[in-house]
Amino acid sequence: MTFTLADLEARIAERAAASPDESWTAKLIAAGPERAAKKFGEEAIEAVIAAVKGDRDELIAESADVLYHLLVMLKSRDIALQDILSQLEARTVRSGLAEKAARPR
Fold it and tell me: Is residue 104 part of a domain?
């Protein structure tokens, strides 16, 4: 069986319902969207540093943290992974350059 982002989203939803004393996910959700966003930002910076250093193993580990914390942040704002996937799908109808050029400035 392959672990997917949908599986991770489901696990985050399950753990978010637990006590903040027993679950890091619940603790982040209980601290509010701002805390979840801050933690996501910290993890994203760590992933960038690993990429710049060229440390493959560290980049893999930090990328896992980024994906997890992104989904926690989205959960804290009641945004489903499918909402993001739908947005990405809509963007695939034209090239990235054309899509960027069409964005309002």
Answer: no
The number of folded domains in the chain is 1
19 domain residue, yes or no: yes
What is the per-residue pLDDT for 63? 98
- In this predicted structure, which of 14-23, 43-52, 95-104 has the lowest mean pLDDT? 95-104
Residue tagged 């997890």 (tokens): 68
pLDDT digits (tens, 9 = 90+) for 43-76: 999 999 999 999 999 999 999 999 999 999 999 9
**In terms of C-beta density within 10 A (0-12 exposed, 13-18 middle, 19 or more buried), how is residue 61 classed?**
middle
Full-model pTM: 0.87
Integer distance in angstroms from the first to the last C-alpha of the chain?
Answer: 44
Read off the CATH number of the domain in which 17 is found. 1.10.287.1080
